[in-house]
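Project standup — Tuesday

K.O.: blocked on the structure for the chain from last sprint. Re-posting the sequence here as requested.
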Amino acid sequence: MGMTIVVTDSTPTGQQTARLLLAEVPSPITLRELIRFRVREEVARRNARTTARRNWESAADTAVRAFSRNGFFVFVGDRQVDDLDEPLSLAEADEVSFVRLVPLVGG
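H.V.: unblocked you, prediction finished:
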């Protein structure tokens, strides 16, 4: 049984550009798994509005590589997480913030 968490996207200056709810997120979850989970949901939502079918796994791989190259940063609450394989014990009160220097999916 997963939980529902709030995920936000922000610019490096702190401006929030997107806010979404992710449901059925397992806990604990590694940051790598969380990034992949989030990309899968984002691609699924995008595909629901378009006839184009994208392989979410390749998009998730791209996002993980972008994180490894400091393309974006992830904060759980006020704590920056920089280890892809660190197990995260999330609470529903936690807000996960993706501070993007580049888009995760698409343009």
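K.O.: great, moving the ticket to review. The chain has one domain: 3-100. The helical segments are 31-48, 56-68.
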